[in-house]
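note to self: dont lose this again. the chain is below, predicted strucutre after it. 599 aa total, dont forget to put it in the shared folder this time
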Amino acid sequence: MSRIPWSTYEGNDIEAVVSMMLCREHPSAVHVRPSRGDGGVDIFVPGPAGGSKERAVYQVKKFAENLKSSQKNKIRASYDRVVQTSAREGWHITEWNLVMPLDLTDANLHWFYDFTSEADFPCHPKGLDYCNMLAATYPEVIDYYLRDGKERVLAAVENLTALVSERAARQAGEALSAVDVQSDLVTIYRALNANDPFYTYEFAASDKLPSGSPSVGPTVVAIWAVEQDSVCITITIRARCRAALTEGPPIGAQFKIAWPDDPAIGAQLQRFIDYGGPLSLPEGIVQGTVDMPGGLGGEVKDARLTVLTIPDEACSADDAPHLKVAILAADCDAVLAETTLTRTERSRGKTGVRVFFTERSGVFTVEMLLGVTPGSPPGSMSISMNYAAVVGKHPADVVNGFNVLAHLRAPNRVAFSAPFGPPAYNVVAGETTGHSGHAEWWAELAAALALLQDHTPTRLAMPAEISDKNAHDIVVAAQLAAGQPLSEIMPPFTIDLHRPHPFTSDPSTVYDFRLIRAVGFELAGNRIEVGKKATFLRGRCVPLNDARSQIEPVSEGMTLWYTGDRDVADVAVRLIGESDREFGVLPAAERTATGSGEQ
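---
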């Protein structure tokens, strides 16, 4: 590209083209033009802490010839204004850059560094060389703004000519294969995206139109799908930078919607009108036109309409809006359970706003509908459990979320607080109606798994599904590990004896028994051992033969967590009234106990 004769262009054109090149260089940049006067253009680039806390500022000026006193005054005024604005709005300037297609003289440089000398942030003049570097990097922006697209047309013709002339040679009668079109698709893609300074276009071909809601990333502004000759062509339009949405060709639509006869769909549409947010209308009731770049868009008839919620942009930064939510007791301010929420969506309609929060581990979501206009309906709040979002997560991370749902029942109260500092909960719901989805059951299971994680090196994770028996085994194992004694009714069990034993031949004699068993459970198809337990009970010994006897319990067993050195399946026996020292141990190597549950 030839050198840019900056001084021949009108000042607003210079500011527009330099600003867009800066936005292409910094895709997250925000483009701001002062509402009055020759204030130039400010480009704000959010820092790592987020745009509400820190910004790098680029002040764009149209000056292309040696600075006059009036122009210096305008530069100084722009500098003072941004310093005052940052102080008023509470964000920090990380750097300030003066950008214009003019290299400063020594005298001008002395003037520049003199009036910025007291700044607590770096200040840089970026002149002609910098602007020319941007022009070389983004020639399509120069062509779009300053040259009426002539170079873009020539480049497109050249690329398409290469597409036709460089097609791979094939043998006569040889079928076309996927590898044959690779280079052609690359050439088409480059030609398609070489000219538009605002958007890029990704294309795909398939046998049928896409179904369901498309996956939308942060840069996607539109998806266009059309069926032609029984082939579906899908084109995804992405913004090259944030400023494309304000500086580029408009993207929009005008629709006429026939009010649906279905009351449920009508209620959804009215909710969208009042609060914004998601909307899905069936095929046949939408007519209108769509405006899109790249020659796409046009008239639509009998269409279905889906309005997706856009992820809250602030939530990707460290200063994302958070709230603490707690369940308070009915008769005092005791906190029964609490967790943290993050705002993930928000929208506004005719009469109110919709705010959508997600619990920190995804256990549940909270949707609030808030009226903001006189006469609007009172606010409402709905809470929905989303177990699929926590599958595979560490149990300790999801316990708080499930505990909140478990306590969400009358007469408990729902309250919110700021996320930092001492909690200062404000009650927003004095009555709760409870929550479905077995929240209490999942809360107990998650707490049990979190406790048992300290007793096994195997990573425990929330399962996609679990049987009642396996869940019961996990809860019981956690109770034992926490030091809680448990009683259980023991069935008769047999022991094999391979040496002289202390039992009398009288089956009416009652003995004290101690059984050592493994503590374990099934999780996601795997058997996990977490420790040992000792069960104490009384029973009679009924000989079956010379080497085998059956133990018939006459009392409930008392089971405790066991940390001793006895092996699993060890059985100890003593006559009632004898001391613990007189327990006769029957090692596992010399006998086997069966029929006593876990071995």
